[in-house]
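Tokens for chain A. Residues wanted.
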């Protein structure tokens, strides 16, 4: 038995089988999802593919609203989520590029503030819960803008707070203080209601989408699609 099958057998023992919760990325059902986060969110993480609420919602959006099966599309996936990565690679692995500054987290080691791709190269860019971690957010956004095709879209997600303005302080470095200020130990900023304006400053046209509304309450429950603080999709384009 492969290691992966053993792992599934183990997770099935702990979390399933069941039909209360379903993961649309690995297409498996469970009695419950795993809890996740510094402040624990119940039923957040798929025990099999490890997808979180935001990634399951994003896959719904990609599957239903974006022409994701178009094999000609060039896709950039920043800090790739494993389950989503596997789904996207199956469509056309030769046009799929995943990057991360940590070489153990993606196939290509690359800094989002210094992309080694030519301008207008990608049709689709996925950058979920990355910008809050990057010291020079403006440079990262200008790089995303540069490599996005004129007819392409960048789907950007982040943690949204109730603040009017984004709070950032790169001098807060201790784990304890970061959790106190940003809610997570690796963040250097907590985005506020001005997040779309920050995206527009890079030149993007921005559409804010709460796709949970399209899917309805029952699906939000069954697929555990979060409360909207982490799951809002910002669809960015050049026109
Ligand atoms: Zn899953």
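Reply:
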């Amino acid at each position: 038995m492969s290691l992966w099958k053993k792992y599934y057998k183990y997770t099935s023992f702990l979390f399933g089988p069941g039909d209360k919760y379903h993961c649309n990325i690995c297409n498996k059902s469970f009695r419950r999802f795993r809890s996740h986060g510094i402040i624990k969110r119940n039923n957040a993480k798929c025990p099999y593919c490890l997808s979180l609420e935001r990634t399951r919602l994003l896959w719904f959006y990609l599957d239903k609203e974006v022409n994701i099966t178009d094999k000609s599309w060039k896709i950039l996936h920043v800090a790739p989520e494993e389950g989503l990565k596997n789904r996207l690679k199956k469509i056309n692995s030769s046009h799929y590029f995943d990057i991360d500054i940590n070489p153990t987290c993606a196939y290509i080691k690359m800094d989002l503030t210094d992309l080694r791709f030519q301008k207008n190269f990608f049709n689709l860019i996925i950058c979920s819960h990355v910008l809050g971690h990057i010291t020079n957010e403006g440079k990262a956004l200008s790089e995303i803008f540069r490599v996005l095709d004129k007819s392409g879209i960048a789907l950007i997600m982040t943690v949204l707070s109730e603040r009017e303005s984004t709070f950032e302080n790169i001098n807060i470095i201790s784990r304890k203080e970061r959790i106190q200020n940003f809610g997570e130990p690796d963040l250097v900023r907590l985005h506020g209601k001005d997040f779309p304006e920050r995206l527009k400053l890079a030149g993007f046209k921005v559409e804010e989408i709460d796709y949970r509304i399209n899917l309805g309450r029952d699906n939000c429950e069954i697929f555990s699609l979060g409360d909207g603080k982490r799951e809002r999709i910002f669809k960015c384009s050049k026109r």
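The two ends are 51 Å apart (CA to CA). The chain is about 30% helix and 25% strand.
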